[in-house]
Every structure is written in structure tokens, then in C-alpha cells.
Task: structure prediction
Amino acid sequence: MRYLSKIVAAVMLVALAACGGAPAPRGPAVVAGQGTGPRFGDSAPHQWVGGHPYNHPVHGIDISRWQGSINWNAVRTSGVSFVFIKATEGGDHADPNFRRYWAETGQAQIPRGAYHYFYFCRSGAQQAAWFIANVPRERGAPPPVLDLEWTASKTCPRRPPSHEVLREAKIFKDILHRHYGQRPIIYTTVDFYRDNNLGSWPEEFWLRSVAGHPQYVYPGQRWTFWQYTGTGIVPGVQGNVDLNVFAGSPQQWRQWLTRRMQ
Result:
């Protein structure tokens, strides 16, 4: 996924609070390695706004080629319960490590899904066809993910109007729904969510928020996954990695998998 710096995110939180006329609620001064959930590290820890992720029992990671070689046995035993793997981008780019990661996580028996980074210079239908050409329809896999955020690409700098964004993204997710038998999960960032009124969508959300709790950053929005840092430290992964939590208990996680597997 594309990363915004935590400083920028914090500034946005302050701006959101200012718009509401109230100071940002501060949670307890808890940092990575504390709480009751799995003990992962963070190379840039900070205090949280409105609550922290460390009491959630079900954690996972999302990865792309930049993570290089991964020791999946170490990842699994560290407490990682799921993995989302970058598969495709736009209409002509495939992550060169996707098939390798897909096979390795399957062998390690870690639930894993694939995600597509959406571009605004290709139609939703073209991008759906590209994703389908690269991601197997595999029984037991979680649903695919549609990553919707403003791109910083030099080859595709477009920021189309909201009605076009929603139209093409809907085409993409409807095609994937028919092919994989599950509605895609929507990953998004706070600025894209706000700019395109994604709260109006009756979809399942994976929300990025690296400085504050989603209940504060995306008020009123239900979510299933929360990406809470891009600087996580996980055994078996070299360097920083995105860390995420599932919104429920281990029992609810098992129920979610049963309901949402292809």
C-alpha cells in the first residue's frame, strides 16, 4: 500500500478535530509491544488518538515485493493470523513476488487474500480482467481486496470526479464478485474515503489510520480490518511491514473466515 507519514496523518487528525470544534480525544500512552494482543514491534512508535490497536487479539500483515524473502514459519508462530498480498496494479502491472508469496503462504497454512491497487487511467473492467488473469480462484481463500486511494503516479496523475471513481470501482468489484463468488473488501485512506463519500457504500471496509483509532478518524463507519502502521516489526520479515488488526475476537475471526472464504 502507499504510505502517508505519521506526521501528516497526525496533522490531518488535528484538522478533523478542529472541524468538529472539539479537541482530539487521547487514549492511554500505549505503544507497540504493550497491550494484550500479539507483541509486535514498531520502528516509529507513538501515542494514539482515541484508542490503540494493541488489545486486538487477531493481527495480520500486508505485503508486496518490497518485503523480499520471508520466513513464513516464523511469521506464523509470531502471532500473524492473516496476510494480504499485492497482486496487481492498474491494467498492466503484476507484483513479481505475488505467485511466490501466494504459494508460500498456502504451504504455511496462513489465510491469505490478494489485493489490487486501482489506477484512474484504466477502466474498471480492464483492471478487473487483469486481476483475474493473475489471481487464482482458490477454494478457501479470503475475498479479494480493492485498494482505493489517490495515486502519486507520474504515469497516471488523474484525480477524476467522485461519480467516475465510484462508477469504475463498482464495475471492478461487480466483476470480481461474479468471478470469485465473494464481494471484494474495500481498502481505503481517510482522504480518499472523505473525497469520494465511500461511507455511502454498503461494503466491508479495511481502513488505514496510522495515528488515531478508526472510530475517531472515520466516525460512524463500520470496519473489519484496520491498518494501523506501515513501520511494524514482525519476526520472519526483513525491515518494516504493514500491521493490521481484525475487528473481533478469535472466535469471530473463525466465523468470518467460514463466511467469507471463496
